Amino acid sequence: MQKPVEREWDLTIDPETVRLLAEKARAISAAINEDYDDGKEHEVEIDGDAHDPHHHDGLAEEESKDLTREEFRELVIDLNVDETAELIALAWIGRGDFEVGEWDDAVSDARQRGRKRIASYLLGMPMLADWLEDGLEALGID
């Protein structure tokens, strides 16, 4: 009886790129969760002792922009069609939508999504970082 030969995965997308995107997704998710931890998200406090409602300290008052989300989007935009399809397929496999043996089907289905709003689609997945890592692990990629 012959042992089945395990498939060697030849990904177009670099696994390090997938890990970087997972890291960014995890940071974005952590930032969102911190916003809602205390149950007072976006609550505005008004100081009754304020004399000048227009007084501000210049740049110190400006909101800090979340560059992680922007970096994630830029990384995804820079991917080619094959890399984008594989990234989505990895997330789907990690989420359990497809089995490893259905890799080609997952990539094909992901390719049919097109390339519009891919970053938003991916960031809409609540456990994206875990699912990307699980997808790589399912393929046996360390």
From TrEMBL:
<dbReference type="InterPro" id="IPR022254">
    <property type="entry name" value="DUF3775"/>
</dbReference>
<dbReference type="Pfam" id="PF12616">
    <property type="entry name" value="DUF3775"/>
</dbReference>
<feature type="region of interest" description="Disordered">
    <location>
        <begin position="33"/>
        <end position="66"/>
    </location>
</feature>
<feature type="compositionally biased region" description="Basic and acidic residues">
    <location>
        <begin position="39"/>
        <end position="59"/>
    </location>
</feature>
<protein>
    <recommendedName>
        <fullName>DUF3775 domain-containing protein</fullName>
    </recommendedName>
</protein>
